[in-house]
Amino acid sequence: MSALWNNARHALAAGAALAVAVFYGAGAAQAEPVDIELVLAVDVSLSMSPAELEIQRRGYAAALTHDSVLQAIADGAHGRIAVSYMEWAGVTTQHVVVPWTVIANRQDAERVAAQLSVHPPNSARRTSISAALEFGGDLFAESGFEGVKRVIDISGDGPNNQGGPVTEIRDRLVKQGITINGLPLMTNGGFDSGYDIANLDRYYSNCVIGGPGAFMIPVNDWTQFPEAVRRKLVLELAATPPLTEHAELSNPPVILAQAMSDSDCLAGEKMWRNRYWMMDAQ
Description:
By secondary structure, the chain is α/β, with parallel strands linked by helices.
């Protein structure tokens, strides 16, 4: 009787293990192949004015439905991409506006663009690029897609001033095969520019972006924003981005990772520690 019971237990355990293996195996097999899994991470810290927040939303909506971007998607090996759009500020503020969605044609892109106008963006305190990158990295685990490339595309108008050091998170994600591209917004707008740094493009080049083919496109004026987003998306979607040492001569320029002189990657944290003379606004 004991032997029969032991045999039954072993059979049940083996069956359970097989069921788990089949379940997870089926889940893995169902991952939809795409050319790129792309996280669009957009700054909504209090240094951004309501008008600027709307410019960002409209800029991304226009870029995703632009002919050049749609053609870049169609030219991919799979002819489709997966996109998630999230907004971020401090360490506790990350909000997914558009969950993972496939874009394979204009109708798909227009649905994503429509989602960006359903609710107005909300601002929040502080600037934690590191937390935004970490959150973006976690999004890939739940995407349900298998991209040839995984990219976090992060925009922001100031340095990291909350959370862990941005270089540590950047390096960890790069080791996981994730590329981080940037859109530093050197527009000096919003309610308070007390935490701005003069060379945000240099900061992004040295401290934020990284991974194979990583690049950034700095924005010096909001009129450049729509074109910068379009060009960035086209380059990210290209199988082999046509980036050279002369790319920074274009307007707005395309700057490769580590292409500029060193920057203090703790500049934002240091400014925050010495904030006694500034309003607590960013």
